[in-house]
Amino acid sequence: GGVGKTTLARQVYKDEAVKDFNPKAWVCISDDFDVFRISKAILETITCKACNLNDLNQVQLQLKDALIGKKFLLVLDDVWNKNYELWETLRSPFMYGSPGSKVIVTTRHKEVASIMGSSDFCRLKFLSDDDCWSLFKKHAFQNKDINAHRNMQLIRERVVDKCRGLPLAL
């Protein structure tokens, strides 16, 4: 946690390079992989309408209709569940999107990426001490010259040690 998975996915989602994806949807999953809730959230995001359906099959049929023949981008953020059958149920409407559609999954677990059928995955690494200090200076001091401050080396060591390479901590 805190290494930047969601931040990276957000940058991709908002990037100009994905402007030809329509529709786009972002759903936060966490540890509750409720296929009905997730399907409904995706449908509501794509259609910009509240969904009053109470049946998974009906929600997925509407989701299929909303995606059919469209090049979509879907971000499933913070997926923890490793149950292949649940993923298979959730993904069934996505098969009707046009070629080039993408699903981006952020997760802490390599097994989740494998279950999702990922052909590519990117494992984010911790920041180096120099990168930690550079990022901290940028946000804490707005890139002003701080070399004149006393005890700056001690501050640097403490900050770098406490954040342990995690951008979120910085």
Short description:
The protein has about 170 residues and is an alpha/beta fold. About 45% of the residues lie in helices and about 10% in strands. The protein folds into 2 domains: about 5-115, no CATH class; about 130-170, no CATH class.
Description:
- The protein has 170 residues and is an alpha/beta fold.
- The chain folds into two domains: 5-116, no CATH class; 129-169, no CATH class.
- The protein is built from seven helices and three strands.
- It has helices at 5-14, 35-47, 56-67, 84-91, 110-115, 129-141, 152-163; strands at residues 24-30, 73-79, 102-107.
- A three-stranded parallel beta sheet has the order 1-2-3.
- Strand 2 (73-79), helix 4 (84-91) and strand 3 form a beta-alpha-beta unit.
What's the helix and strand layout?
Blueprint: H1 5-14, E1 24-30, H2 35-47, H3 56-67, E2 73-79, H4 84-91, E3 102-107, H5 110-115, H6 129-141, H7 152-163
Parallel strand pairs: 1-2, 2-3
Helix pairs in contact: 2-3, 2-4, 6-7
